[in-house]
Amino acid sequence: MLSFSAHKIYGPKGVGALYLKKGTFVEPQMHGGGHERNIRSSTENVPGIVGLGKACELAKERLPQENLAVLRDSLVKGVLEIKDSYLNGHHVKRLPIMQISGSALLKVNL
Predict the structure, then answer these.
(1) Other CB atoms within 10 Å distance of the CB of residue 36
(2) Which of 50, 62, 68, 80 has the fewest other C-beta atoms within 10 Å?
């Protein structure tokens, strides 16, 4: 599972995305319309979704990938100092996705 907010990459506020691996179950917060495989209800914010898409395009073009890798590696190094945490995936070709509780992550000193 991966979630992010558009405003973190200069996209519109109030818009985000959620990626779920096939077979991952998420309890709906609102019941009704059955959008997105019964995960969410209500009208989709099409202008916001388009804005998020454009912000992603611009971020890919403009954000220096080297700096992102340094930040990612710094975060991973700090998290791996926490007992029982481990890197899930390849040590170089990866996103910083680790299995760790949120309360333990708050203790990371970067």
Answers:
(1) 13
(2) 62
How much is the pLDDT for 101? 66
**Cα distance from N-terminal residue to C-terminal residue, the chain:** 24
The length of the chain, given as a count of residues: 110
Rounded to whole angstroms, how far apart are CA atoms 72 and 64? 13
Token output for 89: 């995936």
Listed as ranges, residues in the chain with pLDDT below 50 are 96-98
Handedness of CA 87, 92, 93, 95 (dihedral sign): positive
- Specify whether the CB–CB gap between 1 and 20 falls below 8 A: yes
